[in-house]
Amino acid sequence: AVVAWLRFQTGAPLVAEPAQAQFALVSDAQLLPALSQFALGSDEYPDRSTTIALVVASLAGGRVLTLRGPGIKDTRAIAPVGLPEGFLGQWADNRALFPRGVDVLLLSGGQVIGLPRTTRISAEG
Fold first, then answer.
1. DSSP-derived pairing of the beta strands 51-55 and 103-108
2. Percent of the chain at pLDDT above 70?
3. Rounded distance, CA 102 to CA 119, Å?
4. pLDDT tens across 82-122, in order?
5. Which of 56, 57, 53, 59 minimizes the C-alpha distance to 6?
6. Which of 65, 74, 84, 93 is the most exposed, fewest CB within 10 Å of its CB?
7. 110 — phi, psi (to 5°)?
8. Do residues 83 and 60 lie in contact, with contact meaning Cβ atoms separated by under 8 Å?
């Protein structure tokens, strides 16, 4: 039912390979393929990358992460629970590809945190 609803609402094609996806919904963050496996766009068309909607256990209560970058005055602290192992390293690699790279939406309990590819993420402690 979810697949049919998404196909109808977004018009995005369903694909088998992450590199072909315009949008990806990952309902279990631990099953997230490597970010580099998704469409990364190109220098000429960075908008042809994948936007990943990643469901995590919670957006609060986890390890404190500090966000910096365009659109963030000074810094912003978040503490999501359930990010996959190695996510911060993958994110740093993704950010280094700018203007290419994926964008990620962290989802939990009706709340969303957007992580544009320009966001720098560092761990506290």
1. parallel
2. 99
3. 11
4. 999 999 999 999 999 999 999 999 999 999 999 999 999 99
5. 53
6. 74
7. 80, 5
8. no
Q: Is 102 exposed, middle or buried (0-12, 13-18, 19+ CB in 10 A)?
A: buried
Q: CB neighbours of 69 closer than 8 A, spacing ≥ 6?
A: 116, 118, 119, 120
Amino acid at 76: R
Q: How confident is the model at residue 16 (pLDDT cuts 50, 70, 90)?
A: confident
User: Tokens at residue 90, please?
Assistant: 């993958």
53 compared with 7, residue with greater pLDDT = 53
